[in-house]
Amino acid sequence: MADDKRDDLYALFLERAGAVSAQVVRVAGYSAAALALADIISGEKAAKIVAEPSVMVRKCVDLLREKGVVSIGAPADPGRPALFFDGLRLHAEDAGMGVSEMAVAVAETGSLAGDCTSMEARLVSTLPPVHVALVPASGLVATPAEAIELFYSGGRTPGYLSFVTGPSRTADIERVLTIGVHGPEKLFIIMVDEPGGVGNG
Amino acid sequence: MADQFRREISDALGNPNLRRALGNFADAYPASRENVYRGKDFEAIRAKIAGLKKSGLQNIDQLADQFTRAAEKAGIVVFHAWTAESAVNYIRNLALAKGVRIIVKSKSMATEEIHLNQQIREAGIEVQETDLGEWIIQLSGQRPSHMVMPAIHMTRGEVAGVFAAETGRHLEDDIPVLVKVARQALREKFLRAGMGITGANIAVAETGTLVMVTNEGNGRLTTTLPPVHVAVVGVDKIVSSIKDVAPILEALPRSATAQHLTSYVTMITGPVPAMDGEGRPLAKEMHVVLLDNGRTRMASDPVFREALQCIRCASCLNVCPVFQLVGGHVYGHVYTGGIGIILTAFHHGVEKAESIQSLCLGCERCKAFCPAGINIPGLIRELRSRITKEKGLSGGSKLLLEKVLPNRSLFHGLIRAASLAQKPFERGGVVRHLPLFLAGVTSNRSLPAIAAKPFRDLAGGLPVAGRPKGKVGFFAGCLIDFVYPRIGEAVYKGLEKMGYRSEFPVLQTCCGLPAAYMGAGEPAARTARQNIAAFGGDCDYIVTACPTCASFLKNDYPKLLGDDPQWEERARRFAGKVIDFSSLAGLEELKPGGGQSGTRITYHDSCHLKRNLGVHREPRDLLSAAGYELAEMKWPDRCCGFSGSYSIKFPEISGPVLELKIRDIAGTGAEIVATDCPGCLLQISGGLDARGQQAIKAVHTAELLCQGDNPFR
């Protein structure tokens, strides 16, 4: 995809995701992504984090561990949050944050889309009050229709395809918009351009 | 009409919370909806959805089989439930066999339809609604009042009371706090539930995929945590291919809640990995209960099949002026509003829909908003006509519609007699109070007196163009003929200015719409034949200044006489000549009388002119060209509440609808409200008079354009 086309899609994505209360940053490469994740962890004062063991998430978390930002699987010591890749069914119940990877970002609706067939991908994005999603900038598409086409191309049928658009919400009491019902009350999106710089893809 | 139904209406109207909540929503909805459709071609999306649903419904059995094969291939157990009972039994037996103690549910209208919860509970299993609105409804032992916002009729204070009783805590009526309470209470249930029950918005035959459109996150939890997932899916929800999903997703959130997309859209194909409470892997089970419950029967009905195109966005509720006042509970069953009337008839029996079908004003607004292209008011009229065919008309209506209406001289004779009978109640051309059982008719609006001389007695003496370029037949309609002959005079003047010779065929009679709308097709057809015969064949145009007559003559006559090829052809030729006054004046570039410069007016769109004939620009252009300063009111195309006999049958609904219209008119500061419909004129001028707003004049567009300086003689 041409850089300027991707930037147009990103501009719309940023506007639409922002309009549904998602917080979006766009970074170049994994070290920048790891820094962004560290900022969110400290900003949200998350002591316990559950993470989907996916490629993007592992890369970022490895960098965080090297820098001593998180410890993996260990009980939290003061000032250092504990992050879990395993035992997520139980850990997700009381974790303050979940980190997952979503393959696609939809500009027109400000949505993320990803194959959440694995139990881990679903647990970390449904139970904790904060959801951080890593998404590659190369996954930007214009419309939900394009996203569906991507996931269903070549005769593939994902078991559990999720579109996520902003945090969980309701207007069931007096039509007053209230964020955070059963799902996350905050959604952070870290959009990662491939290493080497923004738009290098 | 059942007393209980009347009582429910009056209870709903007397509930200020309901009125406020629904009123605010109705005011906010159109603009926010329009906002999310910006840049989209609504007509194209609607055509796509209507097309794909139509073709699906024609092959509903085949699609159900195809879905079943694909779903089974994906590891889903599919059960075809012909009736509500068999669906409930299947789910209950499954839950018992699995030893399930707690079931969590995300929002599903299909499970409401089959009354699942109560019967599961009777088997000793706890069923927990998890959608916030549904949970509120469940805890307070009510029915949802709206398909998308089930608890829209309740205030935060009432919700706080319900939650306090459930949790044993004292709770402030603070919405974010109440939402947190629900999150905590239901989280426990999610984690412990042995079964999750959902509905589905779409089912894809090609792949066996279910699509769920939700906002709160309960749908994802319901399909993730419990080891057994049961989806209850109406067979009408099946579409052929995965390509059919996107158009529905494009419309559903936009039309339902004015969102580009809901927070979550989940597309599930087969059982996914699961874990027990300790995190050990479990084999997940997924069941789809394909629910028929009257759908196949409905799909085989060439007319009512259309209702199954519904994608449950509830926009027909959101824009309905009646729903806005009475809310969902008076509809008596699960599905409410316009589409609910039709679905109720099929799922719960025609007799259940008999009272509620009469709630429809026929303003056609829902039809304009429906993203699935369903002619909801048309289907309600068809339902009415079938009920009438089956049960016959009631005594008074039978006499009036079968004996009086088709007999022109009797009908007109009675109107002339009534003009004498009203004398004791008339003051200055207005009837303000009627005695006894007729009092309701004048409680919200005054009525105009029946004219001393009907238009048919005046027409012969009116000037016509000297060297005419053509001949126009004038179809007056009952209101102009007998109540507002002054509008007829204005039309004649206008036609003279345009260079036409006007003719008033005296054998013309009522257009027949009142009969047709009450389900009496045969008397309507008889009046149609009389009118067609009365007009002969030599006019260039047949002009009316009543959009209700115009749309009935133009759109319905050929259908009404469709049984007889000869009459159908005559009706078609007749219909081809019918035109409303403003459209003809626009075509002929009528130069209106001058001297009105700067007078502030506002314009009310008649439902039938705007939505049945698509005319709304023409009268505005003509009035502006005449020098009037047009100040648009807030909802110019919202119904005034007249709708013929509706205002007599349901004065308690018609009155508040009119109240809103008067408020919007007065809000413009205009001296004149113009409209193209004598029915709207009757309603609005009566409403202005009854509220002491005599300073604002209600006038027909033709009067303003053709009467020169003083249209208020």
- Total number of β-strand segments of chain B? 23
Number of domains in the coordinates of chain A? 1
Biggest β-sheet: strands ordered side by side in the sheet of chain A: 1-13-8-5-2-4-3
Mean pLDDT of chain A: 93
How many β-strand runs of chain A?
Answer: 13
Describe what this molecule looks like in 3D.
The complex is a heterodimer of chains A (201) and B (713). By secondary structure, chain A is α/β, with parallel strands linked by helices. Chain A has one domain: NagB/RpiA/CoA transferase-like (Rossmann fold), CATH 3.40.50.10420. Chain A has six helices and 13 strands. The longest helix of chain A has 17 residues, at 3-19. In chain A, 53% of the residues are buried. Mean pLDDT of chain A is 93; it is low at 196-201. The model of chain B is unreliable at 709-713 (pLDDT under 50). In chain B, the strands form six sheets. A six-stranded parallel β-sheet of chain B has the order 1-12-7-4-2-3, with helices on both faces. A four-stranded mixed β-sheet of chain B has the order 8-5-6-9, sandwiched between helices. The longest helix of chain B has 22 residues, at 16-37. With 713 residues, chain B is of the alpha/beta class. Chain B is elongated, with a radius of gyration of 28 Å. The interface between A and B is large, with 51 and 64 residues. Strand 10 (160-164) of chain A pairs antiparallel with strand 9 (264-268) of chain B, so a sheet runs across the interface.
